[in-house]
DNA sequence: GTCTATATGGAGATAGAC
DNA sequence: GTCTATCTCCATATAGAC
């Protein structure tokens, strides 16, 4: 993670810095980190590329701040679900809904993570991305294990594979989900949870 | 699609051309198209970058030939499933297995398509990628619709969302599947089909 | 906080010798 | 079929004026 930006206690007044980060996030999400040039970001911001370096050290610093800020928020939410006092099935329901909600509210950040984490993870500076992945796996494996042990979930599940299927389906949705589109993020979560929990067949074997 | 390479009728003797394409495919899959330089490909092939242009017009030509060749094969297989004389549930089973098998046998090609189709699709030359996507959707929507109408699948399914969930889960597996790893592609398909058809819960509502 | 001007490096691609 | 040599463009980033 990078050096901290000025700490904001209040509900984030849109400073020039955050404004520029928002523009950069949109471009990174749309075209990919590598395919977005500093000049692209500057042009979209109505300034010249040199001026961006008054606000940020480098292009990498920008994506770093975008991702680390978002992940801090996301994982706080996961921890709340994991520690909540409800049954396993409800926790899984909440974790799934939380993820689709994150896609709805932070589509750029999720898209950047999905598309560029592999590339960025190759740099030491972004080592925290792999740590966050491991943390996410830990949450899901805990929830699924709890589900099997409590009898809510089938005991013939391969926890590791099940985790991967859920993670993949949920997060890749950022590639096609459009806020304000035909399906709300709540409807998508409803449909996915129905399928995940009970399957698409009319009858069980 | 690009101009055709020399047509091979026999079981593809590994020409220098296909050898180079294989090396390029591995690098594109691993690092992404944009992040792989022509010099990377040349070095991995034991030659210098200029020499590559004796075999190919451009870096784009290489990825074009890699993708179009693969997709031709893949969609022939889908068409065979779609036209086969079995019930809808069996067709879905076969289509899922076919996809995981494609990941097993052509991991580079699938990875390139997953990671770079968005970027490449922006060029006219790669317009066929979008067409193939539409074709894939057509196959799945047909299978799911047939399943609902025959009574094999629940009639409260949103076909469009269900298609997207299946497509995403199946193809993103290329990011973590490793041939010869802990789970075979058949085991992965088994587990996914179990969950997809019957869900992860012990009991239905 | 932005602009002007520019340094520096790396990318794709080409021409012709061997 | 490969190498040598090189062109050209575009990328990130910097220094200092306004």
From TrEMBL, chains A, B:
The keyword tRNA processing is annotated on this UniProt entry: no
Keyword field: DNA-binding, Repressor, Transcription, Transcription regulation
Stretch forming the signal peptide: none
InterPro entries: Homeodomain-like_sf, HTH-type_TetR-like_transc_reg, HTH_TetR, KstR2_TetR_C, Tet_transcr_reg_TetR-rel_C_sf
Segments of the chain annotated as binding DNA: 37-56
PROSITE patterns xref list: HTH_TETR_2
SUPFAM superfamilies the record matches: Homeodomain-like, Tetracyclin repressor-like, C-terminal domain
Superkingdom classification of source: Bacteria
Domain (HTH tetR-type): residue spans on this chain: 14-74
Protein name as catalogued: AcrR family transcriptional regulator
Record organism: Nocardioides salarius
